[in-house]
Design goal:
217 residues, mainly alpha, globular
């Protein structure tokens, strides 16, 4: 149970810090900015890798868990408990953001396509950004568990990079739990399927790609 609790806490921190930055940016008329939002998500991941990497691996993302499973880094028995723990952490984080920002215009930092952007564009971007994230994770870690500064910096860097170029277009979720929590609490489920399916597809492709370039995925 320790690793599942660690995943819950880690995902809570990621979703709370990241979506709070989005809500604060809206509340304070853009004071945080895209770079600030990217930093909030990226630094949250870096902190959690340092804190719980040796306990649970600091997946804090169902797509990461699925990617590691496809790459045969974790057993099938841990797949569902990890994902449930991550989703519960995201829901609790969104409940707290809702309590702090009850009139938030961003739907609690929900990931949505930008106006004028097609679902196909968003789907492709989510697949690509998640592929980048998982490809880096699978190549900088040596197993299911990781607590290394170098790995943490690389992983947080690719998250920030993805948000910087894809965030304004599709939200750059890369994380079904990060999208599910705000959608559930705000009641805005439109296009949620995209932010669940696309990251899983991207993670699967990354797992296969890593297996293709390494003897052991």
């Amino acid at each position: 149970m320790k690793k599942y609790l660690a995943e819950l806490i880690g995902t809570f921190m990621l979703v709370f810090a990241g979506t709070s930055a989005v809500a604060t940016n809206s509340f304070d008329k853009g004071s945080v900015g895209l770079v600030g939002i990217a930093l909030a998500f990226g630094l949250s991941v870096l902190a959690m890798i340092s804190a719980i990497g040796d306990v649970s691996g600091a997946h804090i993302n169902p797509a990461v868990t699925i990617g590691l499973f496809i790459a045969r880094r974790i057993p099938a028995a841990t797949l569902l408990p990890y994902i449930i723990s991550q989703c519960v952490g995201a829901i609790l984080a969104s409940l707290l953001v809702h309590a702090l920002f009850p009139n938030d215009a961003t739907n609690l930092g929900a990931t949505l396509p930008a106006p004028g952007i097609s679902l196909l564009q968003c789907f492709i971007l989510e697949v690509v950004t998640t592929f980048f994230l998982l490809f880096v994770i699978l190549n900088v870690t040596t197993g299911a568990k990781e607590k290394g500064l170098t790995a943490g910096i690389a992983i947080s860097a690719v998250i920030m990079l993805d948000i910087l170029f894809a965030g304004p277009i599709c939200g750059a979720s890369m994380n079904p739990a990060r999208s599910f929590g705000p959608a559930l609490i705000s009641g805005h489920f439109e296009n949620l399927w995209l932010y669940i399916v696309a990251p899983v597809v991207g993670a699967g492709i990354a797992g296969l790609a890593c297996g293709a370039i390494r003897e052991k995925a």
